[in-house]
Amino acid sequence: MKIKKIGIAAAAFALVAAVALSGCNSQPAASSSASADSSAQETTEAVLVNDGKLTVAASLDFPPFENLEGEEAVGFEVDLMKALAEQMGLEAEYLPSTKFDTIIPLISAGGKADVGVSGFTVTEDRKKEIDFTDVLIDSNQGVVVMPGSGFTNIDDLAGKTIATQSGTTGYDWAVENIPDANVVPYDEMTAVFAALQGSQADAIVADLPVVQYYVKTAYTDMEIMAEIPTGEQYAIVVSKDNPGLTAQLNEALAALKANGTYDEIYNKWFGGSAE
């Protein structure tokens, strides 16, 4: 495990120097000012697993946000993470595909990845474990069924089997809003769609941009029965022990939005402007 700290040595030297000076000086030390300077230094300090790289953990079966084309990761968040890393003077490097519900614990534990993405909705429960950057994109939930299923609204799904991805807000929404449903979590989104196609589930609940992509490109024999306006927002997952990295990512994101790079990436994957 290789961990690099940016600015640690300088901060430590400044602190030792400040202590030495206060011990030799007969005048009262300006402790409040020194403390403020130290706090400012800490908030801008970033910790990286690998020097010069922004190491990313993601579930690479979440198009159009992350997906594998051969051995290459592609998608909206992939392009955005590369642009953010470049803005920060770093190189984005993706780990092999990681199970969605293990990403937050992995980031919280530290040592393997700097950040986590894959359409992470900002929630209060998740904030207890990790920090989020500023918002990347807005999203809702979608419900997918087979044509001719007879399901025309959410009430029709009461008591039915619903396929979702483990650890997602889609799973939570289905449990909370579909009475007596048997909500079955799967590790990967492709397994979720395979369950519906193989008659192991009656419907799918998942993030709307993702189900729109799958129904349009891969599972054209399915249809979106309902769009659920949950008003979710995606952000990047960062360890609570790394506030400096969160701050630097937010600065980079603001710069990309200001210089038009964000809109270019958004238009590439979703068409139009994010505004």
Nutshell version of this structure?
By secondary structure, this protein is an alpha/beta fold. The chain is 41% helix and 24% strand. Helix 3 (76-87) crosses helix 9 and helix 3 (76-87) runs antiparallel to helix 10 (261-270).
General description of the model:
- By secondary structure, the chain is an alpha/beta fold.
- The protein contains ten helices and 15 strands.
- The strands form four sheets. It has a five-stranded mixed β-sheet with strand order 7-3-8-15-9, with helices on both faces. A five-stranded mixed β-sheet has the order 12-11-13-10-14, with helices on both faces.
- The relative contact order is 0.16.
- Mean pLDDT is 86; it is low at 1-43.
Record the strand order, biggest sheet: 7-3-8-15-9
What structural class should be given to the helix and strand makeup?
A: alpha/beta
| Rg for CA atoms | 22 Å
Mean pLDDT: 86
Main sheet overview: 5 strands, mixed
Helix count equals: 10
Please mark out the parts with pLDDT under 50 across 5 or more consecutive residues, or reply none. Answer: 1-43
- The shape is globular
Number of DSSP strands? Answer: 15
Distance between the termini: 41 Å
Q: Helix amount, in percent? A: 40-55%
Q: What amount of the residues lies in strands? A: 15-25%
- How do the helices and strands follow one another from N- to C-terminus? EHHEEEEEHEHEHEEEHEHEHEEHH
